[in-house]
Amino acid sequence: MTVYAGRRDRMRMRPTLRLRLTLLNGILLVGAGAILVLLAWLLVGDALHPSDKLQPGTQVVLDNGERLDALLWQTQLVERASRELLVKGLIALFAIGIIGIAGAYAVAGRALRPLHFVTATAQRLGEETLDQRIRYSGADDEVAELARTFDAMLDRLAGAFESQKRFVANASHELRTPLAVMRTEIDVTLSDDEADVAEYRRMAKVVRNASERANGLVDALLVLARSEAQSGRRLVRKVPADLATSVYNALSAVRAEAERMKLDVTTDLQAAPVVGDPSLLDRLAGNLIENAIRYNHLMGKLWLRTENADGHARLVVGNTGYEVDPGDVPGLFEPFRRGGWERTGSRGSGLGLSIVRAVCDAHGGTVSAVAQPGGGLEVTVRLPAAETTPVVAATATVPRAKGLGVAPG
C-alpha cells in the first residue's frame, strides 16, 4: 500500500488518493453486484412455483422414469436453482470485483498522472527554474484546468520575482549614485593639496545635497514598503480623514515652488471624507501635487479637485507640462520608471506614483492617469467614502507561546 506521512504527525500514515479512489470504486462495484445477485436470488425463489396451479397429489415423471410429487419436485428445483445462482453469482461477483478494482486502479493512476507531474514540478521549482511549466496536453477536464491554473500561478510568480529583482537593482543604482558622488567629491578635494576653505565648503554642499537625495530615496522606500504591507485593506490605522484637508496641507507646503514657477493654480476642494491612515493619505496628495509642479513648465497650469459622489471620494490632480505618450502612462506607476527623456535627469527618486498606487491599494481604492493632449497628466484617485468604510482602532494581540510609473517622485 502506498502511503504518505502526515505533515503534523510523521508517524501517522494515510493512503494515497489513488488507493482511496480505487477502494471506493471497488466497494461501489462489489456492493452493486451483491445487490443484483440478491435480487436475482429473490426473483428466482418467487418465480419458480409451477405446482401452485396443479391439482393436489399431482405427480411428475422425470426423464429416468422416477415419479415425484409435484410439490416436492418444485421444492428441490427452487433449492437447486437458488444454490447454483448464489454460487455462480458470487464467483462472477468476485471476478468482476477483481477486474473492476484493477481497472479502477489503472484508470485512477492515469487520471492522476498530471497531478504527480504538478507535484514533481513544484518540488523542482526554485528561483532559477521558474521558467518550467506543466503544459498539460490531455483531455480538457478538471485536471487540465488545474494544470492551467498552476501554470498561470507560475507566470505570476515569475513576474513577481522579475519585478522584485528589477526593483532591487534599480534601488541599488539609485542609492549608489549619490554615494558615488559623495565619495568622488571627498576624494578629489582631499587629494588637492592646495584646496582652501571655499573648496571644502563647496565639497560639503555637494555631499549634503547627495546625502539628502539618498535620505529622500530611503524615506520613499520605507513609505512604499509600509503601504504595500498594508495592501488589501489591511490598514493598521483606520480613522476619519478628508482628502480635501490632505490636498490643502500638501499645497501649502509647495506653494512657494508653485509661485516661483508662476503656475496658475485652480482648486475646487469639496469635502471628501474617507477612513484610513491620514499620514499615508497626506503622502498620496503630496506626491501627486509635487509631481504636478516638478514636471510642469513655467507659467503652466495646475488644477486640483476633490469631491464625494457615488459612494467614493475622488481626488483629481492635473497639470500641464511635458508631453507623455499614452502608452507610457501605465508604466509610470511602476517603481523607478520615468516617462520621457525629460524626466530621466529629475530630482525625484522615481517612486512617487508607485507610492500613490500602493496607498490606494491599501485603502481599497483605485488610481488612474490620462495623458493630456497638449502635454501634462491628469491623475484621478478613487477611495471608498467614509460612510461605506468602518472605523477600526489599531490593535495588536500577542499569542502565548505554546511549547515553544514610475512616476517621477
UniProtKB/TrEMBL annotation:
Listed InterPro entries: HAMP_dom, HATPase_C_sf, HATPase_dom, His_kinase_dom, HisK_dim/P_dom, HisK_dim/P_sf, Sig_transdc_His_kin-like_C, TCS_sensor_his_kinase
Pfam families found in the cross-reference section: HAMP (PF00672), HATPase_c (PF02518), HisKA (PF00512)
Compartments reported by the entry: Cell membrane
Gene Ontology molecular-function annotations: phosphorelay sensor kinase activity
Species name: Actinoplanes nipponensis
UniProt cross-references to PROSITE patterns, sorted A to Z: HAMP (PS50885), HIS_KIN (PS50109)
Keywords: Kinase, Membrane, Phosphoprotein, Transferase, Transmembrane, Transmembrane helix, Two-component regulatory system
Residue ranges constituting the HAMP domain according to the UniProt record: 109-162
E.C. number(s) listed in UniProt: 2.7.13.3
Transmembrane segments: 21-44, 85-108
Catalysed reactions, as listed in the record: ATP + protein L-histidine = ADP + protein N-phospho-L-histidine
GO cellular component: plasma membrane
Official protein name in the record: histidine kinase
Highest classification ranks of the organism: Bacteria, Bacillati, Actinomycetota, Actinomycetes, Micromonosporales
Residues of the Histidine kinase domain: 170-387
